[in-house]
Amino acid sequence: MGQAGLKKKTGLAMPALIIGANLPDVDAACFFWLEGTEHLGFRRGITHGPPAWVILPLILAGLLWWFDRWQTKRGKRPKDRLPVNFKWLYLLSFIGCLSHPLFDWFNVYGIRFLEPFSDTWFYGDTLFIIDVWLWTILAAGVWYSLRQEKRARSFRWPAAATISLALVYIGANMVWSIGNAATFSISNKDMNFPAEILVVSPVPFFPNEREIIVGKHNDFYKIPAGTQPVRDNAVPITPDRCAWPDLEAARAGNSQLDAFLFWSRAPFAARSEDGSVALYDARFYDPRARDRFSIALPDVECQEPPAQ
Q1: For 254-268, b where at least 16 C-beta lie within 10 A, e where not — what string?
Q2: Which residues of the chain register pLDDT less than 70?
């Protein structure tokens, strides 16, 4: 966005855009005081909601404005820097800050757009959390735009073309996700199959493929990427599923359990090696790394789930 022309609006425009685009992740500081799964229920919340969209850009614009004045007083201000306009600094900080929750929404992890007014999670199910092809498009566009600028040629059109291409790519991914969801829904019509929760999960490297997670609370199935998103290709997420334990009393006194259940979109209980229960989220379940995105309940014995 800076190379497309916004960096010419004011001095320190690029820092406003770049820092602003990363600023909502200041909530990552929670790792210093939260333990275990507690961060799952904290991240992508208060610093990603409407008040933060206003306050964080204001703080950033103020700091950049102060920095420019500080450099001026010390005689260190770069001579080629444009005059600093606070209005534009704030607007660019706002644009950068707003882009962050938008891109967070695109993946299956989710974001609480309306925090603190509502703690509802929203999911875009559009892009893999680190989409190498989108990164490649953007990096190539920035590189070519900077190359054109260095040669004293027009640098705005390569950046604008890159943004257009990125939007087309994102739109295509959204269509693929919607199409996979629709195909599964059609194949599951009039069938007695649990489909209360449907997660269309993009996979790395293959943007047109989706892994489908479908089911209901504690009863999930997976349709592997690369296969037709139809009911007949659904397999149980794990053969080691347990009956869902009564966790209401335990949740009140266990902040990590409470955070996990608040964050989880597709929760299920599975048997640990010692016969106890562990809770997982079907979106991120990997039998090879079962301690990831999970919480162990060593005092709860695994019971067989009720017959289907």
Answers
A1: bebbbbbbbbbbbbb
A2: 308
